[in-house]
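Limitations
The structure tokens in this dataset are predictions for the assembled complex, not deposited experimental models. Users should treat interface geometry with appropriate caution, especially where small molecules or nucleic acid strands are included. An illustrative entry is reproduced here so readers can see what is and is not provided.
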Amino acid sequence: MIPAKFDYVKPSSVEDAVRALADGGDDAKILAGGQSLLPVLRLRLAAPSVVIDLGGIPELRRIREDGDRIAIGAMAPHHDVLRDELVTQHVELLSKATATVADPQVRHRGTLGGALAHADPAGDLGAVALALDAEFVIAGASGTRTVSAAEFFQDYFTTAIGEGEILTEVRFPKYTGWRTHYEKFNRTAQAWSMVAVAVALKVDGGSIAEARVGLTNMGTTPIRASGVEAALVGQQATADAAQAAAEHATEGTAAPSDADAAADYREHLARVLTGRAVLAAAG
Amino acid sequence: MTTTENRPEIGQSRVRKEDARLITGRTRYTDSITPTGCLHIAVVRSPLSHATILSIDTEAAKQAPGVHGVYTLADLGGEEIGMPCAWPITPDQKAPQRPMLAKDTVHFAGEGVAVVVARTLAEARDAAELVEIDYDPLDPVLDMEAALAEGATLVHPDLGTNESATWVFDSGEAGTGGSVTEAIAAAEADPDQVVVKRRFRQQRLIPAFMEPRSCVVDPTGEQIVVWSATQVPHILRTMTTVTLGVPESKLRVIAPDVGGGFGGKIGVLPEEMLTVVLAQKLRKPVKWTETRSECMLTAHHGRDQIQDITITARKDGTITGLDVKLLADMGAYLGLVGPGVPVLGAFMFNAIYKVPAYRFATTNVFTTKTLTDAYRGAGRPEATFGIERIIDELAVELGREPLELREQNWIKHEEFPYTTVCGLTYDSGDYEQATARAKELFDYDALRREQAERRERGDKVQLGIGISTFTEMCGLAPSRVLGSLAYGAGGWEAASIRMLATGKVEVITGASAHGQGHETAFSQIVADKLGVPFEDVEVLHGDTASSPKGLDTYGSRSLVVGGIAITMAADKVIDKAKKIAAHLLEADEGDIEFSGGQFTVRGTGQGKAIQEIAFAAFMAHDYPEGMEPNLDSDAVYDPENFSFPHGTHLAAMEVDTETGRVNLRHYVCVDDIGNVVNPLIAEGQVHGGLAQGIAQALFEEANYDDQGTLVNGTFVDYTLPSAADLPSFTTEIVSTPATSNPLGVKGVGEAGTIASTPAIVNGVLDAVRHLGVADIEMPTTSQRVWRALQEAKGRSTQETPIDTHSPGAGLGSIDPNNPQGEV
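Predicted assembly:
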């Protein structure tokens, strides 16, 4: 279908983008790859007066090493994230989760920042960012600020990005040498996650020294499975330990019910998949 | 140039000559045709399933930029126009008039209420949003059994009932078999017999063809030219005359390249009629192209039946009776052939088995949902599912190996031709051969051993083996049989062959393709028949100006009916050419032999190529007395019988008992489709058919909420599988040539879809039946499987909601505070 009429601007710097956003007022929407925005426009579920395309700001696509972090520009396409050696080496979990996002066409168009800012709880990358304590760099008229992943995700499709602000970069601490796995469960190969579990483990001599576990689509935001993490630390990476820890997977969740899965099934899946993800990560 | 030395074209796996243009899109689909000055229309559709229209305010829309006009049915004077239904299955069938736009009541969500005409499509869509319609909601009618109950809300109160018709076949009354009532009574009284009753549900499916529907009408010439993305250009022309009164001679209908249909483009659409009416009214070309969302919401759906099946058998496994009672959801109105879809299944529940007594009854029911009509297999997938599922249930009841029970009851190869309990005569088949080969390719015994081992050790992944030994009737159809079923048309097909002056050949077929590869397959047939190079044959179709006569493409009929018409036309060309050859070679016609494109005088080296004869006929300087200088020939073929392909399909299904996830590990099918013109095309048809049949078993269902809203009307949530969801199929073809047509061919277009659905479900159940699961409704999603396993353990689980998805949000999650996903 054809979207309702809108103005289109393509700024070439973050400053210009912020200005365009201020000029656009309440109705302005950011285009950051368009894999969620364009369907909504085409179905006329949204009719913004102006669409601000961030695709013309080269520095927002950059992936770089920033001391003990890997800083990924918000407009880096999933495909770039997937192929980036810094990401593979230091943030392997992000790489693995990104590989499960939709299909190659979507991964070439869709961006890391776009997906995180959209904050769909069924999206795969929020649980990773949350589990790995990523930092979100947000630019506005008065400069930039940084928020933690825990602060960033607030509700369904709602983040800490304020009016007039733009997500510019996502910084991941290095998890070099950690063992990771993203266990995704969906109805068809390219569908959204019904439930998914992101796991990163620091394994020392067969025993789990640190654990980070995030859940996809088990609430209105990505959810950190702190109970699972606590139960894993200090354990040998065995099936029994994974199973025991997985029993904590639904703590603090509020699983949605929809056509794919009712809440009780999602809760069951969260436990089963957490156990599997931990075992797979531990290798 | 001759092909004398070449191997025959028939049997070669030629790459389809139409594919380059179809795949690259460098061709003309209907929407790519825009006559000069063309106006565009957008249909304003009801969001409610059942409501009285209180008022329609078009003023604001009329003022919008670029708008030419905004019309309701009354504005168009269209109140008397009703869309055609060509299949009154009973004399007293209740058929409501389906208007082009809702008159005063909407009967399903998505029904058109008004239409906007504008200079551009964008302007039409903008203005469509400005049309204000006030509705007074009525109760939706969603459940078929509730719809038939006393006091139910009526979809069409003037009909006095929600029952459209009940159609019955009883072998006792027809004299083709015994009385099933007696057979069931006898079985119930006989300790040596069993009676197995089951209810199966055929969920509603969306045909999901790739190219949305589109129609362009140019009224500016002597003939009104209608381009449409349709499977049935010839039927569309006749039905436009019937519906609108435009003389047939004043209509030229063109189906240019059409991007798929699967039966979904067999209808005659209110939007097509609207486009014609508007073009006539405005005297300008007008185009309608639907969006994907409109397509999924309003293009007819398929399946949607409840099947109550009773089978009786002796304890030794011999089937003694079969009783089938269907409820079939027609939706809000009757489609072009919708009422007949269950009837097409009536003759196939007995399938390959020797059933002595059989009764079939379908009750067609109105609901406030989208219409149903033909979808790949049309009636036969439902029948095949019913019988192949109940045979497995009978095997469980009797403790028999399911494949052996089938073999005990099926028609043996030496018993062909065999007249069934429905009175159909199966001309040929060899179920033993197909089954033996399938078992071998599948390594059936090894998988049974693995299954036993997994059960034994309580593996979390259980293995099931699904079986479907199907047959179907296709090649629609003998005209007399269709007449006896009150179908509103014949089943013949027409062909013409034109020999051009330079020796090239034009083949005209009435079977208009929408992606099947007719151009390639028909060229192969003609190349062999006339002995001309494949490249020299051009196949023309889909334009009533160039191919004036035809009944189009559906029901696996193109090769077995249309292909035969072509061979008959080719024979006539040869007969004519032989006379001219004899004349030019100064020989007796009886001494002329024709082979490999050469006419030769028997016993001499003298001869002439068919191209030379074509040129001689064109020049007409020297040809026999009493003959026209012309080789061109026409033929119409009306088959005497259906075609009965069959096959054995085996599926290895893995079920993860922890998550309920079903994995199709391996799929083997051996299909007997008679002689094969192009094995590559046949294999492609089988692959695509399997994907669609497997999708019914595992993935697809059109879900409505309790208000009658389609809740998964986008490709985000209507879960069509992709290649990534399916394994590599092992397909093989064995050939018992059909004896009912000169090429010995059988239809293949629907076989994979018809056969595969029960194989998958039988396999899923075979994996978990020992855990206490008796049945799982389709699609057997992981959630349904998990719930069935929980219930088998005596644990209750939550109801599965289907009403929380919003239509078309294109999002992974739905915010309950903002269910439409507005941003």
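Some entries come with short summary sentences. For this one: Chain A touches chain B at residues 1-2, 4-5, 29, 36-37, 39-40, 42-46, 103, 120-123, 156-157, 185, 187-193, 217, 220, 256-265, 268-269, 272-273 (CB under 8 Å).
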